[in-house]
Amino acid sequence: MDSQTLLERFTSGDLRALARAITWAESGHPAGAELLRELRGRGNSRVVGLTGSPGAGKSTLTDRLIEEARRRGERVAVLAVDPSSPFTGGAILGDRIRMMRHYHDSGVFIRSLASRGALGGLAGAVVGALALLEAFGFERIFVETVGVGQSEVDIARVADTTVLVLTPAAGDAVQAFKAGVMEIADVFVVNKFDLPGGERVIQELKTTLELAPPRPGGWKPPVLSAVGSRGEGITELLDAIDRHYAHLQEHGLLEGGRLERARFEVESVIQEWGRRRTREGQDLITQVASGELTPEEAATRLLSNPEMSR
């Protein structure tokens, strides 16, 4: 399929064309870049990021949030950012399995993207995929991260609203405090609240937030409880997400967030270039290892003269 045909099918609302466009964008296909140039800036989706430690129940909450958003008449897309397979580089598709019941709903689109070793964080391709989903006309896009390392911070640069999912498990809240995620989350939800210790975690969060520096526009992050497996607390969670979006609109903060998303995408491209050049520039890497060059000297040569990486 050529890019013009794909664009025509995309603009006519063909979900298969959307899937192909995301594949092209994720793989770095030149036609994918052209499509993004043509489509970027269309649409106006509400982008919600969900992050938290593995096992916190993010996929279950996302599944329930899809259900609630559809009940409100919204078209919904989900990007599940999975850890890359160490063997194939592709996404590990565990998160998609939990949402399988929505697959026959034409108002729901679910896609896994590989983090591709992006320093433990989000792949830059996520932002390209977001642009395509917005152009396709989805009102709401959920981005679920791997929930480890840099991804918990990266998500705040990509989403309009960042939701941190915690559980009553011992040490969960403490780890969030240490990782600095407390500073970037806009909404907190303690999932699996039916387990012992849920109320204690909520009180710890509220106490910590009272000491936190003011948020833009004076936003005060709510601390909610939920039992995703039973669908409890989901309506309240989506309402809180919408209140935060309204806050961003009221205080003129949306445009700054979109600019930060574009900055993240550019930085991701630069990082990918650096990784590629490093893999190709084995001679320079050997010279760094032997002490003949400093890392700074090698990096300057690799980035300033493409021929040096061959």
From TrEMBL:
> Which is a Pfam family this sequence falls into?
MeaB
- Alphabetical list of InterPro entries matching this protein: GTPase/Isobutyryl-CoA_mutase (IPR052040), GTPase_ArgK (IPR005129), P-loop_NTPase (IPR027417)
Keyword list, A-Z = Chaperone, GTP-binding, Hydrolase, Nucleotide-binding
EC number in record: 3.6.-.-
Keyword match Membrane: no
User: Does the keyword section mention GTP-binding?
Assistant: yes
Q: Cite the Gene3D superfamilies for this sequence.
A: 1.20.5.170, P-loop containing nucleotide triphosphate hydrolases
Lineage top rank: taxon: Bacteria
Molecular-function GO terms, alphabetical: GTP binding; GTPase activity
Family statement: Belongs to the SIMIBI class G3E GTPase family. ArgK/MeaB subfamily.
What name does this protein carry?
Answer: Putative GTPase
Please give the organism: Calidithermus roseus
Q: What is the phylogenetic placement of the source species in the record?
A: Bacteria, Thermotogati, Deinococcota, Deinococci, Thermales
